[in-house]
Amino acid sequence: MSPVIAEKKDCLDNDSTPSIDSGHRYLVLGAGCAGLSLVWHMLEAGINDPILVLEQRREYVNDRTWCYWNVEPTAFDDLADFSWCKWEVVAEGTTAKAEAGSARLPYIFLASDRFYQRVLDRIAASPNVTLLLGQQVLRVEERADAVIVRTAAATYSGERLFDSSGWRPAAGGRHSKWLQHFRGQRIRTERPVFNPSRLTLMDHRVSQKDGPHFVYLLPFSPNEALVENTYLFAASISPARHRAEIADYLAQFHGLGPRDYEVLGEEHGTIPMGGGAGVVRTDRIERIGLAGGAARSATGYAFLRIQRQCCDIARRMAAGSLKARSGTVPGGRKYRIFDAIMLAALARSPHLAPAFFTTLFQRSPAESVVRFLTERSSIRDDIWIIRSLFKWDFVRMLLRIFWRQPESEARQVIDSAPLTKALPR
Ligand SMILES: Cc1cc2nc3c(=O)[nH]c(=O)nc-3n(C[C@H](O)[C@H](O)[C@H](O)COP(=O)(O)OP(=O)(O)OC[C@H]3O[C@@H](n4cnc5c(N)ncnc54)[C@H](O)[C@@H]3O)c2cc1C
What we know:
With about 425 residues, the chain is α/β, with parallel strands linked by helices.
């Protein structure tokens, strides 16, 4: 944690007055990827009104990594430790392998601690921003003239609030299975086994009995890789099961026994697929990040979308037009429709997932797929994607959702437009 932030924290912690602190125009809840990105973009946009950021964690550690295709510049690309220009998608069978790549649109890897530190340094140098760590927000109340936020230590009011703290995996409920679960291990091997020039986006040669399941492998060197076990739609997968499945995968496909490698670290997550993120906005409150629907339904990728979402909010704020158009859901309707249909179809026919993804990468030009996945596709790219997926199995899978279940979960994804109701807390 940067010293300036600590000083600001002490200063407020010592203030024993129980009254409402109304010294900040903007309140940001949660200082993870979206909260910090929003502050960054607000500062970039020249906002110098007072901003208060409340975060429950007490310190920042390297708790995750962000990968994304470098289709447009972001403020953090130079922090990336690795990048790949080649990738593959693998399924059962000798021909079921799609190898693709692009030197113009590389896939880049950013460690979260480097991102956090860059924004924390900027905040420390920005007198109008106060970041308070160790502050769990307990209650948010929207009034006609202000938003009130309560933590155990204090009460704050502001004109407008951005909430990135709100998304939690749903327990039970109709959409509770529309989740992506994953756990990754960063490992180091004694002997060289990985090919660092090509990453594996999806290796489906693992059990598919509990729904679409694949391993994602980022090779950093011949001896080091991040190996991530990922499930779509599974209700829940225990950490022990994830670890056992990673070990089985490494044994079967890389000839590595448990003693042949060392686990350097782990990361894990659950990401919403579909409208279950519950995008909510009111006059004074806007959700951002995963809480604001930033994860792309079909892929779970959110980093680029968070940058776009936060940049858009900051620009509108600087232009004085925030109120008029706030609450836009990241991503266009075209992509939401594709994601919705694809996910609903895969939820009904999960055994087709390996062939579906492999075919997508096999039959379309690599850059068309990348632009499509990052929501930058042209009509030509879209035609490539549709043509590549025009296989009888997939067409039948699509027909099945329309035929059997018109009121499908797919509508949730297509219709995930901002709701206008109070934030539940
Ligand atoms: C392990 C992992 C790897 C990922 N990898 C990728 C990737 O490679 N590419 C990609 O595009 N996306 C990836 N994602 C998805 C997405 O980019 C991340 O989840 C991203 O961190 C989402 O940002 P966020 O701000 O919405 O949530 P977070 O970054 O989780 O931030 C939310 C913040 O709110 C705080 N908070 C919560 N409740 C409260 C409260 N009551 N009071 C105060 N603070 C609170 C939390 O402590 C946290 O700091 C990954 C996600 C995970 C978990």
